[in-house]
Automatic annotation (TrEMBL):
Record-linked InterPro entries: BilAc:Na_symport/Acr3, Bilac:Na_transpt, Na+/solute_symporter_sf
Superkingdom of the source species: Bacteria
Keywords assigned: Membrane, Transmembrane, Transmembrane helix
Cellular component, GO annotation: membrane
Pfam family, one: SBF
Subcellular location: Membrane
UniProt keyword Transmembrane, yes or no: yes
Entries under Gene3D superfamilies matching the protein: 1.20.1530.20
Membrane topology: Multi-pass membrane protein
Protein name: Bile acid:Na+ symporter, BASS family
Keyword Membrane included in the entry's annotation: yes
Length: 322
């Protein structure tokens, strides 16, 4: 989720870095444990399926609470870099999802699930990964914010274009769902940050952890819904997710290089392209298709946090290149 770019860029806040490193270690383990729990005890989590949109709304509200006016001002200061990040995100990941679905001959429901992950906005932990990788956190926050705000229009349109040949896509219904579960909670969180600044400041350190817990619960519910098919489909889904995420990270960095951005900006784009809001994808897949279609989102939730942490640690040890 976008974090306060001012605090992240201040090298004096060593405690912030320590918390961020702890987060990227604990988050994947928490999500993985939730997935295992959903698989082992589907009867416990499956009845919670109707609550998934509300859980996503909580995550998006937390995201809105982290946003500040300077985050949006950075869009005006560097429109080219932000535009490049948005275009790269919504071209590379949807296109890669479609290509992987076709090349692996995925069944229709899994194909739509992979494509839907690719059409989602940036992931909620991308800013933390950019920070750990010594990337441009302000750019990361700007791209994540804008990609989320335009998701109600872009995500359904791209899903219809790329996944319409696999299953019927209710693009209009998706627009309404994303407005209710993403845009409205984000705006509500942003307004709360503006008008209840002192109260929000006291709870800001807990927001990433709260989001991680809620994301984990969504993963448990999604896995519980498709537990009976996970054994048969798990291998091919994992392969699709690893390829998808890998292409996103690599091509996101390459897009920054082609766009002649500096080294810190390239690192930021790697995570803004390669990490997806898999919670939104899972919610839409559950609502519009089936629990099986949501399975790629659940696997992506675990994997992109693991791969993101590894890549961030690797980049942090490499010298920056202009």
């Amino acid at each position: 989720m976008p974090t306060d770019s001012t605090s992240l860029e201040n090298p004096a806040l060593a405690a912030e870095a320590k918390v961020a490193r702890l987060a990227v270690t604990v988050f994947p383990l928490l999500v993985l444990a939730a997935g295992i729990a959903g698989f082992v005890a589907p009867g416990v989590f499956k009845p919670l399926a109707p609550s998934v949109p509300y859980l996503l709304g909580v995550i998006m509200f937390c995201m809105g609470l982290t946003l500040t006016p300077p985050d949006f001002a950075s869009v005006a200061r560097r429109p080219w870099a932000v535009l490049l990040g948005i275009v790269a995100h919504y071209v590379i990941m949807p296109g890669a999802g479609w290509a992987i679905a076709v090349l692996l001959h995925l069944p229709p429901e899994l194909a739509v699930g992979v494509i839907l992950v690719g059409c989602a906005p940036s992931g909620t932990a991308s800013n933390v990964m950019a920070f750990l990788a010594k990337g441009d956190v302000a750019l990361s926050v700007a791209v994540a914010s804008v990609s989320t705000l335009i998701a109600p229009l872009v995500t359904p349109a791209l899903t219809l274009l790329l996944a319409g040949s696999f299953l019927h896509i209710d693009a209009g219904g998706m627009v309404l769902d994303i407005l209710k579960t993403v845009l409205l909670p984000v705006v509500a969180g942003l307004l709360a940050r503006l008008f209840l600044r002192n109260a929000v400041a006291r709870i800001l350190p807990a927001l990433p952890w709260a989001s991680a817990v809620v994301i984990s619960l969504i993963v448990a519910v999604v896995v519980a819904g498709s537990a009976s098919q996970l054994v048969a489909a798990g291998g091919i889904v994992f392969l699709a997710v690893v390829l998808h995420n890998g292409f996103g990270l690599g091509l996101g960095y390459l897009a920054g290089k082609v766009g002649r951005l500096d080294g810190r900006a390239r690192r930021a784009l790697a995570f803004e392209v390669g990490m997806q809001n898999s919670g939104l994808a899972a919610t839409l897949a559950n609502a519009h298709f089936s629990p099986l279609a949501a399975l790629p989102s659940a696997v992506f939730s675990v994997w992109h946090n693991i791969s993101g942490a590894v890549v961030a640690a690797w980049l942090a040890r490499k010298p920056l290149q202009d």
